[in-house]
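Feature request, filed as a ticket because there's no other form

It would be nice if the structure record came with a short human-readable summary line next to the tokens. Right now we just get the raw output. Example of a typical job, pasted below so the devs can see what we mean:
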Amino acid sequence: MDKKQNWRETTYKDARERDVKFSTISDMELASLYTPDDVGNSYDESVGYPGEYPYTRGPYGSMYRGRLWAMRQFAGFGLAEDTNARFRFLLSQGQDGLSTAFDMPTLMGYDADHGRAQGEVGREGVSVTSIDDMMRLFDRIPLDRVTTSMTVNCSASVLLAMYLVVAERQGVAWDRVGGTIQNDMLKEFIAQKEWISPPAPSVRIVTDMIEFCARNAPRWHPVSISGYHIREAGSTAIQELAFTVADGICYVEDAMKRGLNVDEFAPRLSFFWNLHNDFLEEVAKLRAARRMWARLMKERFGAKSARSMTLRCHAQTAGASLTAQQPLNNVARVAIQALAGVFGGVQSLHTNSMDETLALPTEQAVMVALRTQQIIAEETGVTNTIDPLGGSYAIEALTDRMEKEALEYIRKIDEMGGMLRAIETGYPQREIAEAAFHYQRQLERGEKVVVGVNKYALPEEIPIETLKIERELEERQIQRVRKMKRERNSAAVKEALRMVAEACRSGENVMPSICEAVRRNVTVGEISDIFRSEFGVYTDPGWI
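Raw output as currently delivered:
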């Protein structure tokens, strides 16, 4: 009998154990104890060293001993000048990268003066209709010295074009502009549901942007392959990992079909992960993601460059985990989730504000969220050694298990014909819905606990101050947009829209014509309408 078995049958057998199910938040059952017997793979092949293949321990050799992660707080509300003021406040408080939230009309490709925008202008992000708004948004922010992330998808091509034109007007060459645009349309069809056109033409536009940036804006990440929203929709951690990597495979395949060499564009692909409440599960997920991507890029796509194999990522604490009940508890949740991201080795991080389940965050709440990152970086000591949880029997065993189960999902998707086909059949959508239902049932039965909601609830809630967006702001933006449309050169606008439509029809890259269009004050909604007319409008099969 080995020592572990002897321990189980003697010391552990006689010990008391709580009457609960010991599983992760994704319901992955955990062993009572992990030992070297649970870590079967060789150290050099599966764990290795930071900055070396397969990058399990991090994409860079010195990790946070060399450079801390970028503290990139998501911000956006009201008019462009309102968000510009918040940007400059955050930069003054030690934030070292910008992250832009756009309102729903902008995200869906509608101008502020469109009927469908009514009641939504500036409410859940900043309102951007034209290049004039983009100029106000980045007023007095030098785009060659600040990197920017933009969370926008189906209208991402237009917003990226606007950002590049702002750089032009600042006198900044495109090859000096750095940042990321989310632009992950596959996860929109899987989870977030913000789209214009069907999947195939949507992926075509993403690939246009990958090609365009590789050749014109080499410091820009043209897509942030996003598991975040897949997890927010109710997936397990393994589903988030599997479906996100499968989305990445689809983009790589499409770009290579275009004739691009994998090492020409892969170094600028980035990832975006969710950080949920289960600490060990989240750390293992990030480590497994790096190893999976490295092996796929090398073995499946023949990448030669180390930069093509290194998965670099942004992460955000889990919005779905925040509660309206006892919102101050969210500060603790966010701190633990952020710490998991740091132990997992992220390159940039957003910490949610405690009030985000109620409204757009107040300045005070944003400050606490930013200070949470700064306390982790400066006071906890966790950045003093690289991958401090590496070699933990539990972490390594969980990393191996998550990789194995995620690869099984990818095998099934490959058999279906790839992620586009899987989405068309509704496969990932069904898997996520079943996982979300299972978790909800566990909450209702009390098998999983949300503090302050289904356990330790209070009879009366103490309200906290929230940010309010005044309705008159919407009217100001509408009048501003209408004035711009009256005063611009209508003939130049008409010709620019014709060029965008022709690019859509001919198969040529749409980005040069979109850049020219925004220079001529063509709007987000007008270009999006070209996509609607040329590619059609997508309807979720679940709505039919």
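Something like this underneath would help us a lot:
Residues 63 and 386 are 6 Å apart (CA to CA).
The chain has 23 helices and ten strands.
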